[in-house]
Amino acid sequence: MDVDPRRLVVLHTVRQAGGIAAAARLLGVSPSAVSQTVRRLEQEAGVPLLDRAEGRAELTRAGLALAAHGGRIADELAAAARELTDTGPETVEGPVVIGSVLAVLTTLVARTTASLVERCPDLRPQLRETSAPDGLRALRQGALDVLLITGDQEHRPVPPPDCGLRILAREHYRVGVPGAWGDPPAGAAELAAVAWIGAPEGSARAWAHARLAAEIGLPDRPTAHLATNWSAVAAMVRAGLGAVVLPDSVASRTPGLTLLPLPVPGMFETLALYRLTARGGTPAPTAAVLTRLAEVTLEVAEELSRAGLLESEPVVRKTLV
């Protein structure tokens, strides 16, 4: 039997995560990509590896056996990565300054910073709230080691010199209207007649709104209202002021917002930018922060998914190397 060991690792992840969708989040790919990988592995092995009866996705006996081999391969790869990066808790020490925009600070970065203090006692993380422009300037000047911002997939910022960029998560946008409106607008014509809550020029939400407007033919006019952060959006929604475009994870948690089955072109991203060493490597304290950020991003995605708050599965980049 000639099988691709990478597919064995994917099968192990399906067993570890408890399903296709959860495995996709762990691996940072789409559920369809995981399903396709398992089917190819079944072709190579010549036996069914998943029991798909009645919508289930449970491993068969053969699947469990191959998944165990995949687990051992994954363990060896993880051990090799640790040896290469040498960033175990016992070796990480010193200060690391983390800047974050408010949206990411409240959902990911504060939680990450607190857990780093426990995990790496000799690491001294220092958290700073910042805006994206100020944060990029501070990163360029060396005042920050790591910067967390949000962005739009089609308008991703260019990292400053001697800096790297990692995508922590990617998710769809959603359209929502205040529940106080009663029956939601039906179709583009009715949406064109309502007020909208816009976003600052150049922001991810503004780009998404512009693409939606072009897609469904919204009038070429300024939005009626402008909200910079989620708390302002939530207040405007509660007051029934307008429709809005938001990332899926935010839209699903906005009280009083009725979500519409209207696709929005493009993807929303959570990004980590960080300073590199003179040789282009990642300093050990920064690597520890990036690794924990990826883990917390996955934890939050799992929590939202279990609560049934996500319309579609986000793509979470757990591996940052």
UniProtKB/TrEMBL annotation:
Chain ranges of the HTH lysR-type domain: 3-60
Name this protein carries in UniProt: LysR family transcriptional regulator
InterPro entries in alphabetical order: LysR_HTH_N, LysR_subst-bd, WH-like_DNA-bd_sf, WH_DNA-bd_sf
Domain of life: Bacteria
Cellular-component GO terms for this entry: protein-DNA complex
Organism, as annotated: Streptomyces griseoviridis
Matches recorded under Pfam families: HTH_1, LysR_substrate
A GO term for molecular function: DNA binding
CDD domains for the chain: PBP2_LTTR_substrate (cd05466)
UniProt keyword annotations, A-Z: DNA-binding, Transcription, Transcription regulation
Family recorded in the similarity comment: Belongs to the LysR transcriptional regulatory family.
